[in-house]
Amino acid sequence: MKESSSKKLLHRFRMIGIAEGVSFLVLLLIAMPLKYLFHIPEAVKVFGWVHGALFIAFLYFAFEVMGSLKKNIGWFAKAFIAAIIPCGTFVFDKQLKKEELTLN
Description:
Blueprint (H helix, E strand, L loop, with lengths): L2 H36 L3 H27 L4 H12 L3 H15 L2
Helix pairs in contact: 1-2, 1-4, 2-3, 3-4
């Protein structure tokens, strides 16, 4: 894959990662309290779907980036772990940003 295509793919992956991280925090810090403290289960239903879709998109893009940039399975495992730990995608994004800058 061309370098500019790889850079675009990595940038999209970073944006999905940030959105996934934000959706995870919204689910944990807003939707869950609304459900259990204020008995509004619809919040979890809505944000759960949004977060689930972003989680799947994050893993899909991680797989695509792994192939495009010839990363190993350990890198993919780090991406997966980042997606299941609150704020993990933000920490992982620092590494991705450095990699994106080297693709100029």
